[in-house]
Design a protein that fits this description.
six-stranded antiparallel sheet, Phosphatase 2c, domain 1, globular, 27% strand, 17 strands, alpha+beta
């Protein structure tokens, strides 16, 4: 048996020309050199309800639920979990993280006598495995397909291809988002970028359904990124988005949206609203307030650009963005989820969960539970922006 350093060095050397399908096998071989046996890569599915085996072996282990399993607990809490099979062997589950974005979990079997050291080694090894999964994803479909439980429609393919990672964190700020229904979403989307000390955020909801709605949303995101990367203000970005939509679509097609910029150094937050539900401010004491903004027409209708609003956030404040598919979702009996229930669930999860991503996962699970299996009739998207205070210099 070699050392952890030997295993990591060998995995890096083999990774440069590694066929993506062979990542599980090579990771398993190199982990064993460090005393981490039977290594398994489990990737979370697009709905974040199951951990699916990314395995090169036919008849690999079956999926594991995110709820009710040790592997799922490791994923939810982003912490190691150990299960002692007997006096001699233990199974360790550790999170697979791309930064703070949760990809799944990494499982190994070790000798119980050295489980503490093995757990630290597994965390280190899993960090490199996660980087491999992310980098190889750009060159293959096998990793994306390993994260699916059903076929994805074309609109959703377009949507996921333009999304940033679902979670990101840096000193002073973190952000997380979720799209539902994961395999059929089309017109709802979000985007963000941290540029120096400015966190840019946006949420869009394109009218309609399916492929036309997905095309409309993609164009809105493209216009937004173009304006953002050109250093345009929020008002100027609104004009760019409006112009490009009018140029490419008829007046019957439009996109609602919210654009915002957080100064991570000071907590100053500026935002505009174009025909979209305004964001909510969640205070550390549980209070929730709506961030009102002067009303404006959706993008694509040629109206006057929205007038920006500003607020000073306090450390620990969170800003919650959502599409109307959240509040307007309803049971077969016609009972809406509604704004009141949205705020109730936010108070329950957004302020109690250890991470923004887990808070949103639980929130959307509560939304789907409310529908009693009836499913969503419209796209439903949530985004949570958290400001922890000025980063340490």
């Amino acid at each position: 048996m070699g050392s952890l350093a030997d295993a990591l060095r060998s995995l890096l050397e083999r990774s440069h020309q590694l066929n993506p399908r062979d990542v599980p096998r090579v990771a398993r071989e190199e982990a064993a050199r460090a005393g981490l046996h039977d290594a398994e890569i489990m990737l979370v599915d697009r709905e974040q309800r199951a951990l699916l085996p990314f395995d090169d072996r036919s008849g690999g282990d079956s999926e594991l639920a995110v709820e009710g399993t040790l592997a799922g607990e490791s994923f939810r809490n982003t912490e190691p979990r150990v299960e002692r099979a007997d006096d001699d062997r233990s199974t360790i589950w550790v999170p697979l993280l791309d930064g703070t974005d949760r990809l799944g979990v990494f499982g190994v079997t070790v000798r119980s006598a050295g489980v503490d050291t093995a757990t630290r080694d597994a965390m280190t090894f899993a960090a490199l495995v996660a980087e491999l999964v992310v980098t190889k994803h750009a060159y293959t479909d096998v990793i994306e397909l390993a994260r699916r439980t059903t076929e994805m429609d074309i609109g959703a393919e377009m949507r996921w291809s333009m999304l940033p990672p679902l979670q990101f964190a840096a000193p002073g700020v973190s952000i997380a988002g979720i799209l539902e229904p994961a395999y059929d979403v089309a017109g709802d989307t979000f985007d963000y970028a941290l540029n120096d000390t400015r966190m840019h955020v946006a949420m869009f909801d394109a009218v309609g359904h399916g492929l036309p709605s997905a095309r409309l949303a993609n164009l809105a995101v493209g216009g937004y990124r173009h304006a953002r990367r050109a250093g345009r203000s929020l008002v100027e970005a609104c004009r760019v988005i409006d112009d490009v939509l009018i140029d490419q679509f008829s007046e019957s097609w439009f996109v609602t949206g919210v654009l915002g910029v957080l100064d991570v150094a000071t907590g100053g937050f500026e935002w505009v609203v174009a025909g979209h539900p305004p964001p909510l401010r969640l205070r550390p004491n549980g209070a929730i307030e709506m961030l009102e903004c002067a009303p404006a027409l959706p993008f694509g209708l040629g109206g006057q650009p929205p007038v920006p609003s500003q607020v000073q956030l306090d450390p620990g404040d969170r800003v919650f963005f959502y599409s109307d598919g959240i509040t307007e979702s309803r049971t077969s009996g016609g009972e809406f989820f509604g704004e009141e229930r949205t705020m109730e669930w936010l108070a329950r999860y957004a302020l109690s969960e250890p991470s923004a991503a887990e808070a949103l996962r639980r929130f959307t699970a509560a939304l789907l539970d409310h529908l009693d299996g009836g499913g969503l009739r419209d796209d439903a998207t949530v985004l949570l922006l958290c400001w922890d205070g000025p980063p340490a210099s």
